[in-house]
Design brief:
Blueprint lengths: L10 E4 L2 E4 L1 E4 L2 E3 L10 E7 L12 H14 L9 E5 L5 E5 L3 E3 L5 E7 L9 E6 L12 E6 L2 E6 L4 E4 L1 E4 L2 E5 L7 E8 L17 E7 L3 E6 L2 E3 L5 E7 L9 E6 L22 E7 L2 E5 L7 E8 L6 E2 L5 E4 L3 E6 L2 E3 L5 E7 L10 E4 L2 E8 L5 E5 L7 E8 L5 E10 L3 E6 L2 E2 L9 E8 L9 E4 L2 E9 L2 E6 L37 E2 L4 E2 L1 E9 L12 E5 L4 E5 L12 E4 L14 E4 L2 E4 L6
Parallel strand pairs: 8-17, 19-26, 28-34, 36-44
Antiparallel strand pairs: 1-2, 1-5, 3-4, 5-6, 7-9, 9-15, 10-13, 10-16, 11-12, 14-15, 16-17, 18-20, 20-23, 21-22, 21-24, 22-23, 24-25, 24-26, 27-29, 29-32, 30-31, 30-33, 31-32, 33-34, 35-37, 37-40, 38-39, 38-43, 39-40, 41-42, 43-44, 45-46, 47-48
Length: 603
């Protein structure tokens, strides 16, 4: 106290440095410490009158004697403390930081690693300073200068933030980052006495300060995919806004959440420490980052959060992530299909449930397709087989999230068979399955797959028997509604093909009720196709089976002949004719159980 009593150029001496003293109040005066070559204890002295009659400085000894004598002779006028000691300490070395970035709102716990932190007897502090270029609310008054004597001090408003540090050991300090008004690189400096923040001199190799990056609060919104197996390793992408893309690191954390309230569960109640462990992420850009899920013990819904320093985590606002048990695949049907693809394959199993992506996925070897139908009972799905460049076995797996595939079923790709001939090429429409016309189909590739072989006549399907790779047997079925062609005594009528409303393609039927080439009526030509797996039919478009109305034979003659045979018999129909409805040279006549080949004559 009593500093205001001395207004005539007071000075200070700290060690060997003599400088101007600034009287702040009756109880405070400001002095500047000097530079010393090594740690030591130095005397701090205050000189209320440091000039003699000539205006020159008195010697340090005289000043010291005068000051101390004044204090001792007149304690009511002199400061209560004029001769005190200050302890000099070596500059503390700051090597690196445990965390080099944090959000602008602060709250990041930082460990400062260095040396010599136990040397101070004061309360150490850490200063965070942004450059003016990084100030968020920068204006003309953000920086101003203070002149004191011949020294210029620059002060940054909204820039400097000072926090108290805790000395953990001689090599470690701990502090918490403050809220800042700038983003980007800031300098972090250390003051052992809470006043002198040490900067790294350019000519020195000592590190007295370190950079710290402040970034705006990110807003993560979505997760994709939204589910993955409990085995982990699912690559998820988190999207949002204001991601700190300049960061060299990113992290994800998964915390269990209630499926009813979606609130975060108390971590202390979790038996596994996997929930308190973060996983390394990869920054894609300022709106997206990716990471891989950890392995967990049981299926659970979790809240996903992201961090750019592995300490300050930010919750994904909208989506949750579900860990699930992989489904069990039992069988698929059919077990094979043509390599052109398009086979509707039903996969049976357990746990076939979609998670947040709509339809699920099937893989046939390296080809992936989406399911065409999802089962509400989670026991079956349907996929359309993709094209394969060659025939052979393909491994079939299923993914519930579009990424992680599981299961090992087998699908046999084969080349579609080729048809070359029918024998006979036609027959009458017969309702009785026991009396269906037996048809031999010639071609190739019939034995490339062993499944439920079928023949299709227009829209009507009938079982087939594969004799060998080039021969297949089947019976011409009743043509169903296609037989409407023969109504009204074979008179021309409006023909509506049931093919347009049934399982086969419109190309499966030739919409013909009149053979315009030979002017023949009462015939129906239907496309013949074969299937080796019961689903996919051959692509031949030229091989037809002709259904015809049997000719109405009204008389024949002669009505008898010698038992030695060779009698020429002539058969006659009514006016409608009919012998030319199928002219493939296979017209026969059954006489007493024996088949006789006939020839057609003119008329």
């Amino acid at each position: 106290r009593g500093f205001l009593n001395f207004q005539w150029y007071p000075r200070c001496q700290v060690g060997e440095l003599n400088s101007i003293a600034a009287v702040i109040s009756d109880e405070e005066v400001v002095c500047f410490s000097g530079v010393v070559k090594e740690p030591k204890a130095a005397m701090v002295k205050f000189y209320p009158n440091a000039q003699d009659a000539s205006g020159e400085l008195s010697s340090l000894r005289e000043q010291q004697n005068r000051s101390c004598a004044m204090v001792s002779s007149n304690s009511t006028l002199a400061p209560s403390v004029s001769c005190i000691f200050i302890e000099y300490f070596p500059p503390n070395e700051v090597s690196y930081l445990s965390i080099t970035s944090g959000p602008l709102v602060g709250g990041t716990m930082i460990t400062v690693f260095g040396a010599g932190f136990l040397a101070t007897k004061e309360t150490p502090k850490i200063r965070f300073r942004c450059s003016p270029a990084n100030l968020v609310h920068q204006n003309s008054s953000s920086v101003f200068s203070v002149f004191y004597g011949n020294v210029i001090f620059k002060v940054w408003f909204d820039s400097d933030r000072v926090v108290t540090a805790l000395v953990a050991s001689d090599t470690e300090l701990v502090c918490t980052s403050p809220a800042m008004s700038c983003q980007g690189v800031s300098s972090l400096s250390y003051a052992a006495n809470g006043e002198d923040f040490l900067e790294s001199p350019e000519e020195s190799n000592q590190t007295l300060s370190a950079p710290f990056l402040f970034y705006p609060l990110p807003l993560p919104l979505n997760v994709l995919p939204q589910a993955g197996p409990v085995a982990g390793n699912t690559s998820i992408t988190i999207t949002g806004t204001s991601f700190f893309s300049q960061s060299q690191q990113s992290f994800c954390r998964f915390v269990p959440a209630s499926q009813q309230t979606k609130d975060v569960v108390n971590l202390n109640n979790m038996s596994s420490n996997v929930w308190q462990t973060s996983v390394q992420g990869t920054i894609i850009n300022n709106t997206a980052l990716s990471c891989r899920t950890p392995k967990v013990d049981t299926p659970v819904m979790v809240v996903v959060s992201i961090s750019f320093n592995d300490q300050n985590f930010h919750l994904v606002e909208q989506d949750r992530f579900t860990f699930y048990q992989n489904p069990i695949l039992v069988l698929l049907y059919p077990a094979g299909g043509p390599n052109v693809g398009g086979t509707s394959v039903t996969i049976f199993g357990q746990g076939l449930q979609s998670f947040g992506i709509g339809r699920m996925y099937c893989s046939f070897g390296t080809n992936v397709v989406r399911t065409t139908t999802n089962s509400s009972t989670q026991d079956q799905i349907v996929c359309s087989s993709p094209h394969s460049p060659s025939s052979g076995i393909a491994l079939v797996s299923v993914s519930l999230n579009g990424q992680d595939f599981t299961g090992a079923l087998f699908f046999d790709y084969y080349m579609l068979p080729a048809l070359s001939a029918l024998s006979p090429m036609g027959g009458p429409p017969i309702r009785d399955p026991q009396l269906y016309t037996s048809v031999t189909i010639s071609g190739s590739g019939f034995s490339s797959f062993h499944g439920s072989a079928l023949c299709r006549f227009g829209c009507s399907v009938t079982p087939a028997t594969v004799q060998d790779d080039s021969t297949m047997l089947c019976k011409a079925p009743w043509p169903g509604r296609d037989f409407n062609l023969f109504r009204d005594g074979c008179r021309p009528s409006i023909y509506i093909s049931s093919c347009r409303f049934s399982q086969c393609d419109a190309d499966g039927c030739r919409l013909v009720q009149h053979d315009t080439v030979d002017n023949i009526t009462c015939v129906l030509d239907l496309l013949v196709q074969v299937s080796l797996n019961g689903f996919d039919f051959s692509l031949d478009q030229t091989l037809n089976f002709r259904y015809y109305q049997q000719p109405n034979i009204v008389r024949f003659g002669p009505t008898g002949g010698p038992e030695g045979g060779n009698t020429l018999i002539e058969l006659f129909t009514d006016g409608a004719g009919g012998f030319q409805r199928l002219n493939d040279g296979s017209f026969t006549l059954d006489i007493n159980g024996r088949t006789v080949v006939c020839e057609q004559v003119a008329g």
